[in-house]
Amino acid sequence: MSNNQLKYAKLFPVMLCFFAMGFVDLVGIASNYVKADLKKPIFSVPTGILMNRIGRKKTVLLSLVVTFVSLLLPIFGDSYGLMLCSFSLLGIGNALMQTSLNPLLSNIISGDKLASSLTFGQFVKAIASFLAPYIAMWGATCAIPQFGLGWRVLFPIYMVIAILAILWLGATPIEEEKPDKASGFVDCLKLLGNPFIILCFLGIMCHVGIDVGTNTTAPKILMERLGMTLDEASFATSLYFIFRTIGCFSGSIILQKISSKLFFIISVICMLVAMVLLFVSDAQYVIYTAIALIGFGNSNVFSIVFSQALLSLPEKKNEISGLMIMGLFGGTVFPLLMGFASDAMGQDGAVGVMTVGVVYLLFYTLKIKH
After folding, report:
1. C-alpha distance from residue 314 to each of 12, 96, 110, 222 (Å)
2. What is the Cα–Cα distance from 261 to 304, expressed in whole angstroms?
3. What is d(CA 107, CA 203) in angstroms, rounded to the nearest whole number?
4. In this structure, are 193 and 171 located in the same domain?
């Protein structure tokens, strides 16, 4: 078997794990049915330390086992306590997987191809998120065999995929470099003292902030400016997700042809144009165009920033991965600031906060290494 064939043989089970990473979005789907607002906990630095102890592949396998258990529980009922336990385990499994799967991929794909591979992984993850509401809907309407589970048929279907991912990845040999020494919690946080690492950390924060901010603000813009109802305005969120998925797929191809730096500049310019459009026009087609541009532009930011961080200190991939995933709390900070700004200035204020994030990413392009 050639080197390329060996590489792809290892890549397939890892991509199936990216699909499993998308299972965490079941929380949003299921909460529509159980009427609960449940969020996943993410604090990933300890996972970076764990990877130094047991390795990345074993950490991913552990995350899949936790995910399997979380998907098993709803088969036995849909009580609040049971679903809360399921969602909590799903969040923990996702935190482990987010932190360990990306650096595991770097053991198979390296150098300038890493960003495109990470982007393709995000596209595969998006497929799982996209399919979830349709499987739940089909189960709820008995359009598929649902064995008395109704919408909860979603869980055993994804549970079977989790089992397949465990078996396939477990049987796939992946060589990992050994860390020089076991890092502690303080050692991980000290990496934020590295100027480029802190820039990457803030870049991840801005990416997630713009992502969550657009999902929450886009419908509000349509309601405020065009008088749409919530049902009518909800199309904006779907539009954003569609173009973000298109961006992930096309980005995985484009990044094979051009440099990460050039494509990152193009992506950020797309978002900057979108912010300007949202400020200067209230026309419906202009607002939709802006939302599409944000979705496409923001789709590859995470992969490029993450790969830049990993490649900057390859001997510290585990610790850096933990720090970068911790940057996901930007999804909490930005909506909070946007809420204050929108109370003071309407949705223009919320757009202004997102624009600050885009301007920061424009500054970050100056620091990207070729």
Report:
1. 23, 20, 10, 45
2. 8
3. 24
4. no
Q: Domain tally for the chain?
A: 2
Q: Which of the pair, 96 or 183, is modelled with greater confidence?
A: 96
Give the helix/strand (H/E) hosting 45: helix 45-54
Residue tagged 């490029």 (tokens): 304
**Domain end point (choices 177, 207, 240):** 177
Is residue 198 domain-shared with residue 149, that is, in the same domain?
no
Q: pTM of the prediction?
A: 0.81
Say yes or no to pLDDT of 181 above 60: no
User: With bands split at pLDDT 50, 70 and 90, how would you rate the model's confidence at 200?
Assistant: very high
Per-residue pLDDT band for 25 (boundaries 50, 70, 90) equals low
The reply to whether 201 and 350 lie within a common domain is yes
Last residue of a domain, one of 119, 152, 177: 177
The pLDDT tens digits of the residues spanning 99-117 come to 888 888 888 887 778 888 8
In this structure, are 217 and 348 located in the same domain?
yes
Assigned token pair, 255: 């990044």
Q: What is the dihedral of CA 370, 17, 93, 77, to 10 degrees?
A: 150
3-state SS class at 143 = coil
Range of the domain at 288: 186-367
Task: Give yes or no: residues 150 and 58 share one domain.
Answer: yes
DSSP per-residue letters across 53-93: HH-HHHHHHHHHHHHHHHHHGGGG---HHHHHHHHHHHHHH
